Amino acid sequence: MAGRGPSRQELIRRRRSVGFIGRQGEVSAFRDALRQPPEEAAQFLFHVRGPAGVGKSTLVRHLETIAREVGAVTAYVDESVADVVETMEVVSAQFAQQGFALKGFDKLLATYRQRRHEADAGFAAAAAGADPAAAGTPPPSPSSMIASQLGLAGLGMIPGVGAFTGAVDPNQVAAGADRVKALLSTRLRNHGDVELVLSPLDALTPVFLEELAEVARRHPWIALFFDTYERTGPMLDTWLRDVLGTERYGELPANVLVTLAGQSRLAARTWEDWHDLVTDWPLEVFTEAEARRLLTGKGVTDERVVEVILRLSGRLPVLVSTLAETQPGTVEEIGDPSGTAVERFLKWEPDPARRTAALACAFPQELDEDVYRAAVEEEAAELFGWLRSMPFVTDRSGHCRYHEVVRGAMLRLQRRQSPIRWEQLHTRLADAFRQRREHLEEASDPAEGWWSDETWRGHRLEEAYHRLCADPRAALPAVLRDLVDAYDHGITTLRRWIGVLAAAGRDTDSPDLTRWSEELRSALEQPAPGIAALTLLLSRGTLEPEGRSLALTLRGRDHRNAEQYAQALADYNHALALNPEADRAFFGRARTHQLTKNYDEAIADYTKAIELMPDDLDSLLYRGTSYYWSSRYEEALPDFARALATPLGAEDAYIWTLRANTFHLMGRQQEALGDIRQAMELSPDYGWAFLNRGFVHQRLERYEEALADFTQAADLDPEDAGPIAWCAEIHRSAGRYEDALVDYSRAIALDPGRAWIFTGRAETLTQLRRYEEALADLDSAIAHDQDNAWTFHQRGMALAELGQFERAIPDFDRAHELGTGDGWMVRRRGDCRVSLGAYEEALTDYGLAVGLRPDDASTLAARGVTHRLLGQYAEALADLTRSVELDPDDPWTHYETAVVMSVLRHRDRDGHLTRAVELSPPEGGARSADETSTLVLVHCLRPRWERAEQHLGEFLDAVPSPLEVRELIFSLRSLISVVPSSEARIEGFCRLLEERLAAVLPSRPPHAPTS
């Protein structure tokens, strides 16, 4: 069987290659690059530049043909792409047409499209909850609290992702990425999907390059062509430079050639250090020799005809080609050389219907057959095929565009010749696009609104262009209003609408439209582009009240996402003053109140939003979470129940888990477990469900089951530090301190910004008597969160263990300021003052603590001891007696009561000593250092020195903490004034204890805690 011959497309490419005129230097250089081994090719990045009509696209297409002739796989990209993701998609599609599908990339791209759609549809609902680790635990860190703030608009933080781009300042993305990740994870469940939506370029580009490399291994060259780069460069520059010159996304094969073609020079800020790597090809108009060679190739040889064409075209390649197309044999066939260029383009066409159709079809920015029929008169209705064959028309799968030079000349001619026809035809085209848009609206009603429909947006965009061209002054207010809706959809859509303003300004020569487009484009270059653009529209645009209200609401959203809460509230207040029924403004203001922890105000605004939008899942969930964070759990439950009754809510594992967490905090653990089972049925790999079940098991003291759940949550999301830290908490609770340290350290390595994890590791280190290391962790915890009372308390206790009581006191001060007012921190401060001998100040602290905790037996006993040390025995006995009444089973309080009674020669002294011994564990049983120290003191007071010495040995064998050793030394020496004859014995005991203390705590510089 004979081999398959060349295709028609291949034959056309060969014919055009043979007939290609001019640019021989560039063509030869490109051929030379293809002949060299890739590792020796110095030229791999070509930049074709020059004014419109100079033949850049023609040259690029010719270079593509040359590349294919030597077996290269090629791809051509022009301004039809909207962002980097679409660029990779176009390249992949063209590779597939040549038989080299990038299957892995295409699969990942499909996943990305789906996950982005899921996030767009329901992301705000999934952001309702804040840090799941909050259940029954220390309060979450500020960073995890802030994580709940980014609703659907937060997706706009992702640069280069089409419609999602620009809701906030792109420069803030790095600082806020962890916040977005936390919220996306509640919706998308899978960590990989979160990263895919959060950073699509980081996820897609490496796969794209890997598969590109696979194609490159099997072919001599890959040639990529980026045409109309003056339009695509601003969005492709950074990505393309990183792909070519860095390893951010992976390695680019050496046998890849890249050609850029655009009107202007490459952007200096991106390519300034690439001058030695870029082969610059500036194109000018044809030389006279090149123009004559083209005319000869077209059969135009009469010298008079050639001279007229050269003069009329200015040797601009597209005009030379157009005027030569009909092979005029005489000057008369060209027409009067003093006529306009447009007249020359069409002079050769004798058919008036065709001439009129060609002129009319310059009005649309892009043509398909329906637009063509709307533009032309009835007698030309069937000439679309003819028009597509014209040399100044580019045909792309049924959609056509005029070359800019030709279209611009035709538009200028018609605007000057007939302003009335200009307005009529633009109005007719605007009406045609309006009808196409309305036809869509009659067919369906998308739940997400029409701005989410790409086809609908395209019709509205073209309608706006033609309205502006027909009557710029009358159409401008409506288009400015459209800009607000366009930005609501995304910054890429806004850019396209601004582009329409610019195009209409150019085509109508309207200063107003041009000024608006320039100022808006300048706004988009600001650090916060959305805020800048909306501010411009609000300050100078003629928006009606409803439009101003929406613009203020959107600007409020952007201020909120940028954590500029005062500005956000001002915008929301203004929006509601203009439109009291603006449900989104109520919602946005509620979110701002919620993020600033003004929960009552947030609940009131969510309630109003729900009245205006009864079925809005977001408002229900956010109001429920506001109740939740206010500890108003009973009120939160109905909102979660209503959310679960919605079609989306009933399928959302997140909401079941959130309600389970509420039940958990209310102590209703079985109901919590039931909701978690529902969540796991809907999403078996939902990590937060495992985490919450772990909390429930922990509350029920099922520690091994809790550990299994936390471990599963960690396995599902290995990059999340939270579940690993909770595994560490279980290990610490079980006394497995070394295992706990391993998990705490893993968690800190993953997320060094969570204060509570540092605090947990510090508590573990304290249990291991590694106080200096514990203090370092507590310093780190306080550096990340200076508002956590427990962390300051822990650092104060660690300092006390080291005997640094003066340094501990400020930490207990701060803990008391931040605490719940229960007096425990004041009690600790009093203990430090006793150790420092500041008894009067200690009495003040104990008095304050007793006022806050009047039934706390240990604090009353501590105050009683301090009274004794001051010689205030009646007051001491009163406090100690009350303490015994409150806690009759505490051996130490009985002992201290006996000490005071010894001084007062009270007859009940021995009864309290006997009771202290009875309450201690029996002989031979396991006794703690604290229990044994009381027995030492009891026998010193009796005195029974042999028993006291025996118990002192037991105390030292129990490995007491440094603070326990110091407290025993202090208590022993306080007995000398009560039993003076015991001084020698007691000092002997104290020397033994001080030797132990010195061995446990070698001399070190004092720790200096952070403030």
Structure description:
- The structure is a single chain.
- Among the domains are: 8-100 and 219-282, Rossmann fold (3-Layer(aba) Sandwich), CATH 3.40.50.300; 104-206, no CATH class; 288-348; 353-594, no CATH class; 879-1000, Serine Threonine Protein Phosphatase 5, Tetratricopeptide repeat, CATH 1.25.40.
- The relative contact order is 0.05.
- With 1011 residues, the protein is mostly helical.
- α10 links the parallel β3 and β4.
Strand order of the biggest β-sheet: 2-3-4-1-5
Rg, please?
A: 40 Å
- Class by alpha and beta content: mainly alpha
Query: What would you call the shape?
Result: elongated
Report the average pLDDT across residues: 84
Quaternary structure annotation:
single chain
Give a quick account of the main beta sheet: strands, pairing sense, barrel closure: 5 strands, parallel
Low-pLDDT windows of residues: 123-179, 335-340, 1003-1011
Kindly state the percentage of residues in helix: 55-70%
Q: Report the end-to-end length measured between terminal Cα atoms.
A: 88 Å
What is the number of helical segments per DSSP (H or I, 4+ residues)?
53
Strand content: under 5%
Q: Number of DSSP strands?
A: 7
